[in-house]
Design a protein that fits this description.
CATH class of the largest domain in chain A: Alpha Beta
CATH superfamily of the largest domain in chain A: Succinyl-CoA synthetase domains
Oligomer: homodimer
Distance between the termini of chain A: 35 Å
CATH topology of the largest domain in chain A: Rossmann fold
Number of domains of chain A: 3
Strand order of the largest sheet of chain A: 9-8-11-10-12-13-14
Strand content of chain A: 15-25%
Number of helices of chain A: 16
Largest sheet of chain A: 7 strands, mixed
Number of strands of chain A: 19
Shape of chain A: elongated
């Protein structure tokens, strides 16, 4: 299906306007990002100062490229953006304007932004930005980020889309996800959004086969009604999560000087999220935990949680945290206790939480999990695996993953601790289980997966 | 000053009752822990099965040691504990009973626990436990933990004491702190506490020069009045923080089957914490973040927070999170804006949060922080340092630490991200700054340091 956002998400050619040959310059880093991401189409550097940039012929202006370019990345000072946007008229389909210095800086900036908007509209150019980072897209292999890869790693191909008004927020999340090889489909930093908005992107993503879940970082939304409609349609097919920042006094002021956003009343956003079946997130940790959870699991309707652990205290803490977010720690049914009691030493606590103590073995962990999740007593399990107990081996993650697969239910692993433990977290990831470093983050993840069953 | 807990915190000799020569056995791991910790006094293995354990003469029973032992660690089945406690009468000053199988297991266990308690009382033996891990003490070099060091690292010498009803909780926190070289003074896991309670330990720690702050993990307290009195006295000289678990239905039940604790009404605990000036923590993350914050800073009276960042979105998120825990993001005073504006490019947001954008340099970060913290406009600063901006160098942490030292105020660093960023976190630690991996954890830390100024 054709979309008016195809120039951004499926471009055949890209011009980098203001491309510099000087290493370290933002425009040069964008060239490097495009090279590294393996974009297969034409890349045209545009800059009257050079005849060649990074081995590519450099054009003095957009007009001299000689063909209509799908996507132009404007890496130029704010003062030059309007003139170049006029030049782009009829010669460029979509433009990413990374330049800052517009409505986020006050009155003069607002006027310049209006002018830019008008020029784009008149020229028939769709715009992402200004004051943004643009796009990192693993489907189209487009990377317009002006941050070098040694500083901020790009995550692999995956099924989570990120829509963020803040560029640094999106980058930081990507860099964090990359460590755990949690994949993304398309990441868009749209900044002051004079044209392309989260609503436009949601409309595109609703029909995007590469995307299974969408995370939004929002400072302010201009057209609430359109947003809700687009989100509603998208959330029928994908899992949507949103963090709204600028909720309170200082945060609201900061959002306005960050992306010129009018942060608005938080209650209105909450109501809109609810209407559109968007899972409401409370901060950065929620975003990362949500992505971790959704990369390995699909959300479930329900709120009954089983807790299995070898550390009694962790079990108690997790039970508390579950109760506080509306998850229900349903007692283990009598018939399951009768199955498990003869298998385990008498000092194990066979209930929910199920405490396997420091005497635990891989087998017992697996047995406890598979018996508990059998049938329809629980919607999800949290396994708090501490690595102190001497009989646990590196085969534990694969065994737990096997039990999780057989049950068909999400299993969230919590494995807090130091050096030995941190190395073992990778084993859980390799086995396909979502693993978390604190009890609270595991519960955050569980509450996101079960968000339709609980009031977050 | 003499204390009745000296046998635990300052023993001259230690007997390991039930010491085994078989590698992997809990009692053998305790022997190894004591060897590795560098305990300078005598260590006596006691076990009729051996004449020698780990190169040490092994005694068939406590009586044959021939001298009164300060501390005996009982690593024996619950069924043998009472008999051995009777044998210890007059021959042992303090006993750590690690054995489980007492009140946490139900009616029979409760009876056995009563018997153990009586035997200890009659024999004049002070007891930590049963169902506990005992002590890790960097002052006396005592380590009775039955978990090998390759699985759970021990933190270095430091000034934070940990009192925990849950052994695994204490171990996991220690292991986590060890990664960042955050030091502890004394860690006590006291389990079912038939004798030595948190109140006893707090009385001891009140006069302990090695300890500056105390973290408590509590499932249930038996004598509330005594606890409040001991805590009150201790908190006059030290910073006290407590996590109460078993707050809700499932958690309460779990606490009871974990350490036999009667979890009680949470409101009563909150009132007691308030009375005794104990900072109330909400979970594991709070414990770790609190220790990180207090290892590098002293708490402050006040709640005015300055936020300096190079990532606008992070600044907005931190401002929101601050507001939500009662910290006040006071706008930057006009006269400070007038100082900073001529120094910075026009597109920096000179306010609170102060957004230095991706064009930031080390110098500008330092300048912003030192001007903001000068005088008495703020009680604490949160610096959200993202490492994407290309001009930042590895000298940033030392520069920020210098500004923090000159200001005499706590500076909390938040540095979220992936590989490149994580390596730089160590630089902040080395510079003596508390560093956190998410905005939320930085705000948790700030709210703990400013807890006396805010209602947590």
């Amino acid at each position: 299906m054709e979309s008016s956002l195809d120039p951004f998400f499926n471009p055949r050619s890209i011009a980098v306007v203001g491309a510099s040959a000087v290493p370290g310059k933002l425009s040069r880093i964008i060239m490097e990002s495009l090279d590294r991401s393996g974009f297969a189409g034409e890349v045209y550097p545009v800059n009257p100062k050079y005849s060649e940039v990074m081995g590519r012929r450099c054009y003095p202006d957009i007009g001299s490229i000689g063909e209509c370019v799908d996507l132009a990345v404007f890496a130029v000072p704010a003062s030059a953006a309007v003139r170049l946007m006029k030049e782009a008229s009829g010669r460029v389909r979509g433009a990413i304007v990374i330049s800052g210095g517009f409505s986020e800086t006050g009155r003069e900036g607002r006027a310049a932004e209006e002018e830019l908007k008008r020029a784009a509209k008149e020229g028939g150019v769709r715009v992402i930005g200004p004051n943004c980072m643009g796009i990192y897209d693993t489907v189209s292999s487009v990377d317009t980020l002006f941050v070098p890869e040694d500083r901020v790693r790009r995550p692999p191909k995956g099924s989570i889309a990120v829509l963020s008004q803040s560029g640094s927020f999106a980058l930081t999340a990507m860099d964090e996800l990359a460590v755990e090889s949690i994949g993304v489909s398309r990441v868009v930093s749209y900044g002051n959004k004079i044209d392309v908005s989260e609503a436009d992107c949601l409309e595109f993503l609703a029909d995007d086969d590469a995307t299974r879940a969408v995370v939004l970082y929002i400072e302010g939304i201009n057209d609430g009604r359109r947003f809700v409609e687009a989100a509603k349609r998208c959330s029928e097919k994908k899992t949507l999560m949103a963090l709204k920042v600028g909720r309170h006094g200082a945060g609201k002021r900061a959002a306005s000087s960050h992306t010129g956003a009018i942060a608005g009343r938080y209650e209105l956003y909450r109501a809109a999220f609810k209407k559109a079946s968007i899972i409401e997130l409370s901060g950065y940790e929620d975003i990362i935990d949500g992505c971790r959870a959704l990369a390995a699991n699909d959300p479930v309707d329900g709120r009954r949680v089983m807790i299995v652990t070898d550390g009694g205290g962790m079990g108690v803490g997790i039970a508390d945290a579950c109760s506080e977010v509306g998850l229900v720690v349903v007692p283990l049914p009598e018939e399951k206790k009768e199955v498990l009691r003869p298998v385990f030493p008498g000092y194990f606590t066979v209930n929910n939480p199920l405490d396997l103590t420091g005497s635990v073995t891989d087998e017992w962990f697996e047995k406890a999990l598979s018996v508990a999740l059998d049938g329809d007593d629980y919607d999800l399990a949290i396994v708090a695996a501490l690595w102190g107990p001497p009989h646990l081996t590196d085969r534990l993650p694969e065994r737990l993953a096997g039990a999780a697969r057989s049950s068909g239910k999400p299993v969230i692993v919590c494995s807090p601790g130091g050096e030995y433990t941190r190395k073992r977290r990778a084993l859980f990831e390799e086995a396909g289980l979502a693993v978390f470093s604190t009890p609270e983050s595991a519960v955050r993840a569980a509450s996101i997966l079960l968000a339709r069953g609980v009031q977050r």
